[in-house]
Write a structure and sequence with these properties.
By secondary structure, the chain is of the alpha+beta class. The protein is built from three helices and two strands. The chain is globular, with a radius of gyration of 16 Å.
Length: 92
């Protein structure tokens, strides 16, 4: 019986929408992790699948610059993907 994770057992064509989604999710997680590593303080508020950001505490200058350069310019869909990887207000 083949194992699904073995190369060649994936029926999706290279560059499929699912693969692009997997790559974007990974990129979104990387952006969120780097922002947090730099001292980012923004928190996500997720309610009924609506994502909003709360920003009570100041970011470090490095985190703020990273947010402005790499996350703020993203279109709404991709920015929300990043924001969902941030800690939530319920984590406080």
């Amino acid at each position: 019986m083949p194992i699904a994770s073995q190369p060649g057992n994936d029926d999706r064509p290279f560059g499929s929408p699912m693969e692009e989604h997997d790559m974007q999710t990974t990129r979104s997680k990387q952006l969120a992790d780097e922002y947090l590593r730099l001292g980012g303080k923004r928190l996500a508020k997720i309610d009924d699948n609506i994502v909003k950001i709360r920003h009570w505490d100041d970011d470090t200058p490095e985190a703020e610059a990273f947010w402005q350069k790499h996350i703020e310019p993203l279109d709404d869909k991709h920015r929300v993907e990043v924001e969902t990887h941030l800690p939530t207000i319920n984590d406080r």
